[in-house]
Design goal:
Blueprint (H helix, E strand, L loop, with lengths): L5 E8 L7 E10 L2 E9 L9 H7 L3 H4 L5 H12 L4 E3 L2 H14 L14 E2 H7 L7 H7 L9 H17 L1
Parallel strand pairs: 1-4, 4-5
Antiparallel strand pairs: 1-2, 2-3
């Protein structure tokens, strides 16, 4: 698979529980160019939010009271991810959110046919000497526009960081 073909993903969560996805942003890259994007609010279980999470991403129970639950958007997510190289900034978090949310709704993660570990721009940029290597700092240093903790903007920033690394 060409290293310039991949999907970047970012989740925001409503609580500290990894099954509480409340927003997802996905950016598909083909031949080194952004080919497609997807964004959706997601109603987390019981539409429950913790104040500390709201303080980070500004999404509240009012924003998601009419949003679809994860199984209703899963087919769209699956189309963007299945069999692709997936990239995230702090991939262990986003991979865990996807797995735990799918487990919660009894969806089969293995059908996505994804690598056990995803590509991680946090680890990549730490290895390049960035400190801190948070998404906002990396994007600022690399002159990538970012609205931090907005899922689609974070996924786009991650995709651009990964492209810069690949073309390096």
């Amino acid at each position: 698979m060409d290293k310039l073909d991949f999907t970047a993903i970012d989740f925001e969560t409503a609580t500290a529980y990894r099954n509480s996805a409340c927003a997802v942003g996905i950016v598909r890259v083909k031949n080194g160019k952004i080919a497609d994007t997807y964004y959706s609010l997601i109603q987390p279980p019981e539409n429950l939010y913790w104040p500390q999470n709201i303080a980070i991403h500004k999404i509240t129970q009012y924003d998601t009271k009419n949003a679809l639950i994860f199984p209703k958007i899963y087919d769209e997510i699956k189309q963007h991810l299945q069999g692709r190289v997936v990239v995230a900034h702090n991939e262990s978090f986003d991979r865990s959110v996807l797995k735990k949310t799918m487990d919660y709704y009894k969806l089969n993660y293995s059908e996505l046919n994804l690598s056990e570990k995803w590509e991680c721009t946090l680890k990549i940029y730490k290895a390049k000497g960035f400190s801190p290597a948070s998404l906002d700092v990396c994007c600022r240093k690399m002159k990538i526009e970012l609205k931090h903790h907005e899922a689609l903007s974070d996924a786009r920033g991650c995709a651009k960081l990964y492209l810069l690394h690949c073309m390096g």
